[in-house]
């Protein structure tokens, strides 16, 4: 790993909200005077009744529980819309770019957003939804998805967004788990020129969900769908019959805001529950600090609303900050690998926030697709979701940002609500591959397998020792599972499940999930480290590395390698890459097996499914071992990997 330092550019140092000294002082105070600190920070929100208490939590079994601002009252949608009306009713709140580049972009001002959300909220109310009810959203990336989130928040209903790429089975499981009586969907979605039959999927799912009473359907493509009498209603028709005003429901800070299902290392997906006050504060504060966001900046988080990144950084953070948020229906590389950069030029985007996997895919296509665009509007580049290999980081910085834009690598999780370890552009010198330093109130700790605290420059398992406002509050319907999953591995601490290194400067380097760490001949190694070395090679586009049982070494290293377009896979290249890794990291990192793979099994959010890769590497390719592959972006990838197993 490289420790090269990229200093804060002078313009950022001079103008940003925080510099290196003030960031350090602010962080120190957040931990020494947490009550005063957080009650001050809470003033950035608009409270119906301001809180007098900040955090009230314990990670110990006897009195386990997490509360923030527990006597405060507010409404999230009023914070994201109504309070901006006096000063920026005519400013664009949501800027929408369709999948097809020839489609006209849509602009929704704060005034228009208010009307749309109020009508949507009244439609939900007239369908019978009320405070505390769960409403499942299964939506494409259209403005109505954001309206739906805000409409739920307005009436105090709890939204549960299920990614529009999940199968009917996955959708049904999530509807049943939280006992949703309402579903919001669209006729169809659109992605990369194809349509996704959302309503038909809902119909299939609902065959297993008799509890669902009403389905609100957004007309998105105009495609033909079946409507079930008495159950299904069109949003546009219903919206005409309701008022354009809907007073926001006063909510306690600890009332639930949303559930979002996420996979753990065991069992079925967990319904991560976030509440009202702490989550919104965390979304808004981290969006402002990590990206030095100012109203007027065109902000683009290129995630899907089906993931926490979409919740926090497409909708809640930027709108709470009175921003202009770009919502994009499509994918970064369609119709051409220039699309993402063309959207940036078209809308004069100031900050783009995306995932390393997208960057690697684009990098593989070559620089010409980037260089064909201007990108002069860009000031900042963000990344999230997985460790970014220094190679992709440098490409993002140099080719995309022309050495001008700091890279904001944000480490966090569905469970944390928003960024936890991340740079601030005016305050933090960057190191490619490091998420850098903790956000206010975040106290990271690195422990060894037995839980002993490791100080100074070290490597181990990442825990957070205290609560922060954006922390999840429970697993829906299973509070004990919440406690068992996160607070028992290392008693009294939140365990992230991630491995982490801290360097001499106190910078944090996430090495990947701890279940991805392998042990070769007694040496612990981050699979991300080997991957990073492999992708440094000019012929390699992407690599995924897993461990497999090895008679002598305990575990061996199995590398799946995707080559750049036009490179021929052969034994000579296999040898070259093996030697390459030995030279980059050392002989202990020598891959035992390299399998060339035209594609890797990924979830629709772009996460590589290592569980499947581990099974194939182990030679356990039964259907039972491989598990459900239907939710993968491209399930056929798995067949190819199995048929071409190496080793
Ligand atoms: C990983 C996504 C390294 C990590 C917001 C974490 C990262 C998991 C980074 C959470 C990053 C996320 N660097 N690893 N910047 N961001 N991760 O819940 O392993 O989808 O535990 O939340 O992604 O994934 P989740």
Mean pLDDT: 93
CATH architecture grouping of the largest domain: 3-Layer(aba) Sandwich
Low-confidence stretches: none
The biggest beta sheet is recorded as: 8 strands, mixed
Explain what this protein looks like in three dimensions.
The chain has 647 residues and is an alpha/beta fold. The chain has three domains: 10-77 and 274-448 and 466-484, Rossmann fold (3-Layer(aba) Sandwich), CATH 3.40.50.12780; 111-252, Rossmann fold (3-Layer(aba) Sandwich), CATH 3.40.50.980; 521-644, ANL, C-terminal domain (GMP Synthetase, Chain A, domain 3, 2-Layer Sandwich), CATH 3.30.300.30. 32% of the residues lie in helices and 23% in strands. The chain has 22 helices and 31 strands. The strands form eight sheets. The protein has an eight-stranded mixed sheet with strand order 12-11-8-6-7-14-15-24, sandwiched between helices. A seven-stranded mixed sheet has the order 5-4-17-16-18-19-20, with helices on both faces. A five-stranded antiparallel sheet has the order 22-21-23-25-26. Helix 7 (143-155) links the parallel strand 6 and strand 7 (158-161). Helix 6 (110-126) packs across helix 7 and helix 8 (168-177) crosses helix 9 (198-206). It is globular and about 70 Å long. The two termini are 28 Å apart. The mean pLDDT is 93. 5'-O-[(S)-ethoxy(hydroxy)phosphoryl]adenosine binds next to helix 12, strand 20, strand 25 and strand 26.
């Amino acid at each position: 790993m490289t420790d090269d330092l990229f200093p804060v550019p002078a313009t950022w140092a001079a103008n940003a909200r925080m510099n290196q000294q003030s960031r350090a002082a602010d962080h120190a105070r957040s931990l020494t005077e947490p009550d005063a600190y957080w009650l001050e920070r809470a003033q950035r929100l608009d409270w119906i009744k301001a809180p007098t208490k900040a955090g009230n939590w314990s990670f110990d079994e006897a009195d386990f529980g997490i509360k923030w601002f527990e006597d405060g009252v507010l409404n999230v949608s009023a914070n994201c819309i109504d309070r901006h009306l006096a000063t920026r009713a005519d400013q664009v709140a949501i800027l929408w770019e369709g999948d097809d580049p020839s489609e006209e972009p849509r602009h929704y001002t704060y005034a228009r957003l208010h009307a749309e959300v109020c009508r949507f909220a009244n439609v939900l109310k007239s369908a019978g939804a009320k405070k505390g009810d769960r409403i499942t959203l299964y939506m494409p990336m259209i403005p109505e998805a954001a309206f739906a989130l805000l409409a739920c928040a307005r009436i105090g209903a709890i939204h549960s967004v299920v990614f529009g790429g999940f199968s009917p089975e996955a959708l049904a499981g999530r509807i049943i788990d939280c006992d949703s009586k309402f579903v919001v969907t669209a006729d169809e979605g659109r992605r990369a020129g194809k349509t996704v039959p959302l309503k038909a999927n809902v119909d299939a799912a609902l065959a297993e969900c008799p509890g669902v009473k009403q389905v609100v359907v957004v007309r998105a493509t105009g495609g033909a769908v079946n409507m079930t009498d008495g159950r299904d209603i069109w949003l546009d028709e219903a919206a005409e019959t309701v008022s354009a005003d809907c007073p926001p429901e006063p909510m306690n800070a600890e009332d639930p805001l949303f559930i979002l299902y996420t996979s753990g290392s065991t069992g079925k997906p967990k319904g991560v529950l976030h509440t009202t006050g702490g989550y919104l504060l965390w979304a808004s504060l981290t969006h402002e600090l990590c990206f030095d966001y100012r109203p007027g900046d065109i902000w683009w988080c290129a995630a899907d609303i089906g993931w926490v990144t979409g919740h926090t950084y497409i909708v809640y953070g930027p709108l709470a900050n009175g921003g202009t948020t770009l919502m994009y229906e499509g994918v970064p590389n369609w119709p051409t690998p220039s699309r993402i950069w063309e959207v940036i030029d078209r809308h004069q985007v100031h900050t783009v926030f995306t995932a390393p996997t997208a960057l690697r895919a684009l990098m593989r296509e070559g620089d010409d697709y980037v260089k064909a665009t201007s990108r002069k509007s860009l000031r900042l580049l963000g990344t999230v979701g997985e460790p970014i290999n220094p190679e992709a980081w440098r490409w993002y910085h140099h080719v995309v940002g022309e050495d001008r834009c700091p890279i904001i690598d944000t480490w966090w999780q569905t469970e944390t609500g928003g960024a936890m370890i991340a740079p601030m552009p005016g305050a933090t010198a960057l190191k490619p591959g490091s998420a850098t330093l903790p956000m206010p109130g975040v106290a990271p700790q690195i422990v060894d397998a037995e839980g002993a605290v490791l100080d100074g420059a070290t490597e181990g398992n990442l825990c957070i020792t205290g609560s922060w406002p954006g922390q999840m509050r429970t697993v829906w319907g299973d509070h004990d599972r919440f406690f068992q999953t996160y607070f028992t591995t290392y008693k009294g601490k939140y365990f992230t499940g991630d491995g982490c290194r801290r360097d001499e400067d106190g910078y944090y380097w996430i090495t990947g999930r701890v279940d991805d760490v392998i042990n070769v001949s007694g040496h612990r190694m981050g699979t991300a480290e080997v991957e990073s070395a492999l992708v440094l090679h000019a012929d390699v586009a992407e690599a995924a590395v897993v461990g497999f049982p090895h008679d002598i070494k305990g575990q061996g290293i199995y590398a799946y390698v995707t080559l750049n377009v036009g490179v021929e896979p052969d034994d000579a290249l296999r040898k070259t890459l093996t030697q390459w890794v030995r030279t980059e990291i050392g002989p202990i990192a020598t891959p035992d097996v390299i399998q060339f793979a035209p594609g890797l099994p990924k979830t629709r959010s772009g996460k590589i499914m290592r569980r499947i890769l581990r099974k194939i590497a182990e030679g356990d390719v039964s259907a039972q071992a491989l598990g459900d592959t239907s939710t993968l972006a491209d399930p056929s990838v798995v067949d190819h990997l199995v048929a071409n197993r190496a080793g």
